[in-house]
Specification:
By secondary structure, this protein is of the alpha+beta class. The chain has a domain of 74 residues: Nucleic acid-binding proteins (OB fold (Dihydrolipoamide Acetyltransferase, E2P), Beta Barrel), CATH 2.40.50.140. Helices cover 19% and strands 26% of the residues. It has a 5-stranded mixed barrel with strand order 1-2-3-5-4. A hairpin with a 2-residue loop joins β2 and β3. The longest helix is centred in the first third of the chain and has 25 residues. It is flat, with a radius of gyration of 29 Å.
């Protein structure tokens, strides 16, 4: 009757082996999600309110989109009123190019990008959720995540049913 003792020993050995495997796995720090091989973005830190006065200048980035800058107290700020893909040719900062203005917004410590909120006391957009939020389904074809297949609306809810095989039977003529 040594069989029950052997089974108990085997069960304990299996339990110890499982713990040896499980503890390092459970204790490991979670990896950031995202595409493989792409490093996680460093933390920017808290936003700091800033107000600068100077003349707004424009240039063109590598993608051919306009960029806006302002030099104040020897520091050149890159001014943003939101993503350039959203604004296209209708960026609200374009109206201030060549003019001396006071821009109020936020920045991160050590950064030279200024997220503009007001120009000469006038708000650039309404308070609340920005108009470019919500992804391609909300913004539409100007969003960088837009795909041509999205033009017909979201799948389900009756969208696309007319084109589904066997769903729209053609009426046959009476014999």
């Amino acid at each position: 009757m040594k069989i029950p003792g052997n089974r108990l020993g085997l069960a304990l050995a299996v339990g110890v082996a499982l713990l040896a495997i499980a503890i390092p796995v459970l204790a490991a720090s979670p990896q950031p999600s995202g595409p493989p091989g792409k490093a996680a973005k460093p933390e920017k830190g808290p936003e700091t309110p800033v107000s600068v006065t100077g003349t707004v200048r424009t240039a063109t980035d590598a993608d051919g989109r306009p960029t806006y800058t302002l030099t104040a107290a020897g520091k050149t700020w890159t001014i943003s009123a939101g993503p350039s893909w959203f604004w296209g040719d209708k960026n609200p900062l374009a109206a201030y190019v060549g003019k001396s203005v006071t821009i109020a917004g936020t920045t991160h410590a050590g950064d030279t990008e200024l997220e503009a909120e007001k120009v000469d006391g006038k708000a650039l957009r309404a308070p609340g959720k920005p108009p470019w939020a919500g992804g391609p389904w909300v913004v539409g074809s100007t969003h960088p995540g837009w795909k041509d297949w999205m033009a017909g609306g979201k799948p389900g809810n009756g969208h696309g049913r007319d084109d589904a095989p066997g769903q729209a039977k053609k009426e046959s003529a009476a014999p």
